[in-house]
Amino acid sequence: MLVLRPFIRQVVFRAARPHFIATPRYSSTLAEDVRSDSTFRIPLIDFAAYKQATSLADKRRIADDIVNGFKEVGFVYLTGHVIEPETVNHSAEFFRLSEETKARLAWDDPKANRGYVQVGRERVTTSMDAAEIAVLRAKAPDTKESMEIGRENHPTFSNKWPQESEVPGFKQTMLHFFQTCHEVHIMVMKSIALGLDLPEDFFDNKIDRQDHNLRLLSYPPIRTSLLRSDGQARAASHTDYGTLTLLFQDSIGGLEVQNPHTKHYQPASPIPGTIVVNAGDLLARWSNDILRSTLHPKINATEGMTPARQSIAFFCNPNFDAIIESLPTCTSTSNPSRYPPLTTEQYIVGRLAATYS
């Protein structure tokens, strides 16, 4: 079971005992259900069945479920112990450090994308116009702080770590968690390849350099009336930039997902023992928009004061020099490519440069 418990000395993702989640059975298809807000659902998929499959047909069945979830919703819940036990998160402990200590680790370069981001510095949005984002940021900045971590042995950029004495075990824990999430990314992308009628290893050499971003997030308490003011949210409506995002919520939750068919927002409530996984912009471009990169804000729309909460997002990216162009199985004479080729670095660095002040 995957449990995220904020505001204790150690926050543990634990799977020490088997945790079984029965996959619901529905009389209607996902495509039928998501056409209405009253029946909208994010599919729950046992990913252990993919890892344990002994035939290509068995793998393909799970792969089709995952791809169908990304086609119809853009999000899935994955269960099946996809995160190793004993992974310890010191995220809440890091954010309790003094402002002076955290400021010493400040984010300063969109190419590096590493370091601490104070409350109000970021403004996520679907816009790619830096001037428009600056206006939005001044009017309604995102009410969260974050810590950004990349792969450790990058030839150019270094992570910004607190001293070991400040948060004991923080660095080693995050590096282990980063590697574990990378391995999950590889396996899920294998299933997506199969579901898109590609060889299972199609993406392997395009995602093997670990050009990912591990983001620790802390949301301070805030009055609900402020969140409901014009344009304000924990994090404004946005899509993610890479291939997949692995999201680990605490019990408070707060994630909402836009129903792509009605354009209304629906809660993606935490389910113990699962990871929320969503498709990002580059996977949508690769698939020629067959797979959806769905809008999602973080709201926490409870009355009065919203509680403080923690979450962790692992933004999975292709290799930065990978060329992202529509896949051959996702285009045809009647459905030509919608996007020109570009590299991962061109897209992500451009989006990051516009997002931060």
TrEMBL record:
One Pfam family this sequence matches: 2OG-FeII_Oxy
UniProt record similarity statement: Belongs to the iron/ascorbate-dependent oxidoreductase family.
Coiled coil: none
Highest taxon listed in the record's lineage: Eukaryota
Organism this protein belongs to: Suillus fuscotomentosus
Keyword Cytoplasm applies: no
PANTHER family for the chain: 2-OXOGLUTARATE (2OG) AND FE(II)-DEPENDENT OXYGENASE SUPERFAMILY PROTEIN-RELATED
Residue stretches making up the Fe2OG dioxygenase domain: 209-318
Name the record gives this protein: Fe2OG dioxygenase domain-containing protein
InterPro entries (alphabetical): DIOX_N, IPNS-like_FE2OG_OXY, IPNS-like_sf, Iron_ascorbate_oxido_reductase, Oxoglu/Fe-dep_dioxygenase_dom
Alphabetic keyword roster: Iron, Metal-binding, Oxidoreductase
UniProt GO molecular function: metal ion binding; oxidoreductase activity
Matches recorded under SUPFAM superfamilies: Clavaminate synthase-like
